[in-house]
Fold these 3 entries.
Entry 1:
Amino acid sequence: MKLLFLQTFGCQMNQVDSERIARVMGRMDYTLTDCVENADLILLNTCSVRDKAEQKVYSALGRFKEIKQRRADVIIGVGGCVAQQEGEALLKRVPYLDLVFGTHNIHKLPEIVEQVQTLENRPVETAFYRDPSYMEDPEDAVRVGGAKAFVTIMQGCNKVCSFCIVPHVRGREVSRPSEKIVREVEALANHGVVEVMLLGQNVNSYGKRTPGEIGFAELLARVNAIDGIQRIRFTTSHPQDLSPELIEAYAELEKLCEHLHLPVQSGSDSVLSRMRRGYTLDDYLGRLRRLRARCPEVAISTDIIVGFPGETETEFAATLELLEQVKYDEIYSFTYSPRPQTVAAKLYDDDIPDGIKKERLTRLQNLQRGIALCKNRERIGAVEAILVEGRAKLNNGQIMGRTRSNRIVNAFGPEGLVGELLPVRITGATATSLIGEPAGAVAASDLHPEGEFA
Ligand code: SAH
Ligand code: F3S
């Protein structure tokens, strides 16, 4: 048995890829370890969406240099988005690095690790594939885990948002065959998974480029029909592709949770146009209105970038107004960071000073904190189902879980409930979470309209 130390940076895509790295290497007799000192193989699964994420990778690698000096036989590799972005250049920059594998090459990892021992040159594998089979595990690979599981349904992105490196490091859209996805979710359900999160950079484009394949709304309907699955989530959707069919799915599919992550990026049409997002604010708000009309309970979260090149105070103020108008349940906000190969980095100077970017971010986040607190307080008194995930972050004897609308609830209750759906009465609220108590016998009138406990 050999030991693998695996460090993951970035989004859920990378998390699910890391689970796969562990499975693929598990078949080669590698077991995960938390202790880098004893590891035979050290792998970093990396993120390059912003410069800060990329820098974290180099500082992590810096820490491993000394280990390599002491134990020359330890193998160190970098995968994921920085690997894809940098390729060979990473070997030059990090002389003690043994291998580089790109975002499409996890299935090749055993071979690549072997090449470290057999080849003169250090292996670099960053090819992109159009055939989706590179995303498949061998048929006999069993995924085990808790009550929640991520399932990749597609990779890549065909959009051209001017700030975004993702299409460059994840490639063009490739969808997995729907039968394979359905079979994987069935197998997960048989192993006790009750909640699935379907993953892709732009899930609404699912199947569009594969002749004869079903679309995303139909895929959701098929997953909805799988026994044992109780909750379905997905991420991420591009607003332009929020189709009428998907809006109907929210009205019709009882397992589809009332939450949508719909990145807007900016509240200003001129910034949206420089970002090449392909919609105006009116388009965006129109789609949101139609969704809310069909699914009034739906919680909305979003991504926002502040300090995009040329962003004026007036353009930024439009984003603040948007927050007031939509009243998002949650936002993820970032300061703009120019990325290699992107249109924005080529066309525009990164001309907003850091100080102003940070100041705008703070104003945005302060405004959102107030909005989220108000929205969370409105939940007090309600009884909602949470899927218990584990101990609360504060480790104060509470357990935590999420409501269907993706709100975190901390409540006193036995840890044995992990993986269970538990009705809780909401008793308090902060800007980022709710406080609850197990609701015991629940009156039918208190139940969520979809009747998770019915
Ligand atoms: N559709 C994708 C988006 C990936 S990037 C998905 O799968 O989630 C996630 C978020 O990072 C984007 O929505 C955007 O808000 C932010 N982001 C991307 N590029 C950025 C950049 N160059 N600078 C700052 N933030 C960026
Ligand atoms: Fe990036 Fe835009 Fe695609 S944000 S992942 S290019 S939808």
Entry 2:
Amino acid sequence: MKVIRPPDRMISVSRKLTHQGKTIGVVPTMGALHEGHRSLIQASVRQNDLTILTVFVNPLQFGPSEDFSRYPRPFRKDCRIAKELGVDFIFAPHAQQLYPKGFQTVVEVTALSKRWEGLSRPGHFRGVTTVVSLLFQCTQPTRAYFGQKDYQQALVIQRLVQDMRWPIKVSILPTIREADGLAMSSRNVYLKSNQRQQAASIYTALRTALERIRMGERNAAVLTDSVRRMLLENADLRIDYVALVDAKTLEPVWKLHGRVAILVAVWVGKTRLIDNLLVDVP
Ligand code: AMP
């Protein structure tokens, strides 16, 4: 396994591989690898001739008061994990290499980026779509892998790839969870033990809503209300949003039908966590 830093070097390597007819799987991450990342990497290694893992904590997608500087960066450990899983290249550019002096281009997906994460984190998706466009340009993926955990992000990327007509297959893989249901996240390390316990209620509340839908509840307001009430039983938990939305457009639904996503974003102390479940409503 090779670690590549300069974007130009990554471009020449990926071009060469493409010319040799190899399929390239790309897994974009910010590092601090956990089981969620592992499952994406494993899928890529299975489905492609070569896998490129990108590790880049992208300053463009963090707001001024967010956790950019304290975001975990255990690069040596990440390299060990990647090697063990069969990754061929880690592309880990420095920020000055990816955004050299004079850089002034942004890539934006409009409507899908507006609500939910877009409202709570202004500029976040513009940062994501800009860096993913650059990472794709450097790595030339045949397939790219994203997690359902960041559902809106995955839809935004799918839209980007479709709109730009890039010949890349975007796969969205299921959320990997801890034993108590908490979605794995590099940010979970921020949680103190009492907060960690309370964070598990996110999944409990989502599952309860899912059960109520299966039992016949179709009223979105009733369901969001019950999710909110369950979350608010936790003293350290503040709700950012709870929403039932159309799984394609992310527009809110009032009466449930078709494929619906239940979206949750909360603050547990100073840590912001998101999660979601998809449900097909007959
Ligand atoms: P991140 O390093 O947090 O930017 O995540 C990199 C990729 O891993 C994104 O596509 C995430 O959606 C995905 N991912 C993060 N957590 C999980 C999880 N628990 N299960 C599945 N995929 C995940």
Entry 3:
Amino acid sequence: MIIDRAEVILTSPDRNFVTLRITTDDGLTGLGDATLNGRELAVVSYLEEHVVPLLIGRDAARIEDTWQFLYRGAYWRRGPVTMAAIAAVDMALWDIKGKAAGMPVYQLLGGASRDGLLAYGHASGRDLPELFDSIRSHLEQGYRAIRVQTGVPGLRSIYGIASNATSEENTGVRYDHEPAQRGALPHQEDWDTGAYLRHVPTVFEAVRGEFGPELPLLHDAHHRLTPTQAARLGRSLEPFDLFWLEDCTPAENPEALRLVRGHTTTPLAIGEVFNTVWDYQQIIREQLIDYVRSAVTHTGGITHLRRVLDYAALYQIKSGMHGPTDISPVGMAAAMHLGLAVHNFGIQEYMKHGARTDAVFQQSFTWRDGYLHPGEKPGLGVELDPDESGKYPYVRAYLPYNRLADGTVHDW
Ligand code: CS2
Ligand code: MG
């Protein structure tokens, strides 16, 4: 099992994806996801220029050693580009090990701790009727847990609202509701924290009134609040019993969460922009969160996210792995294998990929009655179709950003 070849595949079926394919001298192949939304080429270059040359000739079976070599052996540690590249190598090696053993990766991680993974989807609307329709449609698709994002009166367009989107067919510009938009420059959105804080509790009150007390509901604040604003939001949402409030404050400042925690019992989720266990060290040790939001893709792969989750388990903190459409089917498969195996699984985010993406990546997971399962194929269970991937060249794309009414750039 010596690594013979490692290729980086950049394809853009419904959006950009960076995939690493490793081939061994005995003909086994493994796939890893290295997609960094809106900054894809940085990881392509890091992989091609700096990592691939180090892989050729290595023993593909030595997953831990390869991880330590790529992490500790480079002087410059951490950061999203490095950790996405290491993640892709790690995933591909787990894929190969599974294929060599004839077992799905979750079996190599200790076997299933549950029958399936509860997953949540993204409902959204500019107003209540649109939001209710979106929630109903998600329930019809089988979702048993729902993230609720809403338009705010007075704001033109807000990130994460599906109906703000215009389709590629109509405009020539792709703009889905969790986009990096294909285009020359990032799209500008507007923001008003006061209006948001006044509006959101009224929306959750209406949603609870319509859909009852039992449906697990989640909400993402996308890092836009100060600690006192986040504390106020958490407290005002307590009557509506959220599953979690996500990214209430910018992730760089763990101390902010102490203040939030001191004022609200609304569960907190954070970490989709974190890359290592060190980013989590303080907030896990001080029990400042309830859910770890990292994706396998952005946190150094299965090997490293497993380490984060084992640490989190000491403090009754669970997984809530990031799963928007910018995590490729390979990254989603890795999340499902890890989520099935660890004891402290919480919930899995699951946004369906488009038909073109599903044609490029042949997958073996199942989605039944609100639960995901990675399937029983050896390895991760995903194969890439080279003819399909070759049809969709990379298109530069940016996430949007937002400004306040006076023109100030606001937190993401
Ligand atoms: C979002 C993401 O899924 C989520 O919770 O915060 O869609 C995020 O905006 C994108 O992944 C950014 O790449
Ligand atoms: Mg989020």
